[in-house]
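Entry 14. Structure prediction run on the chain below.
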Amino acid sequence: MAIAAATWGSAAIRAGLVVGADLGRSWAEQIPPPFETVVSGHPLPTAASEDAGRRALALADSVRPDETVLVLVSGGASALLAVPADGVTLDDKRLTTNQLLRAGADIYALNTVRKHLSAIKGGWLAARTKGLCRTLVISDVVGDDLSVIASGPTVADASTFDDALDVLNRFGGPAAFPAAVVERLRRGAAGTIDDTPSPGDPRLARTTTTVIGSRRDAMAGAAEEAARRGYRVVRIDDAVTGEARSAAAPHLRRALAQAGSGPRPVCVISSGETTVHVTGSGKGGRNQEFALAATPLLATVDTPVALASAGTDGVDGPTDAAGAIVDRATLTRASAAGLPPDRFLSDNNAYTFFHALGDLIHTGPTGTNVGDLQVILLA
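Output returned:
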């Protein structure tokens, strides 16, 4: 995105900042001047995340009334740009994010809290600039809610401190979170701290934010390739959401029903973002857990069938895999190898299960993120 912006308007750009995760390759060397670069942290913020956030705020502060700040956002920005609000530390934010992720909070709940612990999210970045602010977004959020994507650094925020406290209560209770976090949210709810800029705030009057890419683009790309390979394509446009282990079987049944008895082979394509409530001590991600939960039902299908679920960023949870692939023979192969799926599912240990079978999907980091993609093939 930065390279495209530089190509499009290099003569007009006087300063810039590009922040990205460590993708295992030297992307920063590809960024042209006058951009500075920061290799930041994801999915939990690091000291580099705070450095990047403070640099971004400094750039916003430097914009003159006759200038424009262009903000280009892709997946992961909530962790990549992190400026703790007054009274909380980066460690407080890390512990809070980790607790919410492990408790199964979806991105809406997670980012409601993040915005209220931040000096850059929830519209604060745009509020700092005196010029025009134009934001172009590649969405990794189901529903493409602009105030949720990247925790909305340039978007008015309708959520409140009360909403953030409610999230804490639903995902572990105040005792599960750092005392400074609970104290800040309670002070905000009591009205002693200014809330995030809300819709209609005059500080955001010169700001516009537009989605330019989303999960539907990934589905369109997959559908085009499937058709090219001779598949009849069926799209399920409703987002795949909810707890991964609970969503897998109903989604597979729906896919089989929509594929029907029409011409074969058929490719059923869907997308979305599920969650995982971590109660075990294993390793995995939501796509791997989704595939593992679908394994028993796949074994009962009376026609050749395979299911793949993968993150479009190439990273599924804290693993080196994008997801996993299963078919109706997976259960038989697992049984022969002494790998009971229910045991690995209960321990949140899908990575170990699929690693032993050789069924992990490894793409490497893709450099973008529009959520998760599911592909089901029937012969």
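The chain has a mean pLDDT of 95.
Filed with the rest of this week's runs.
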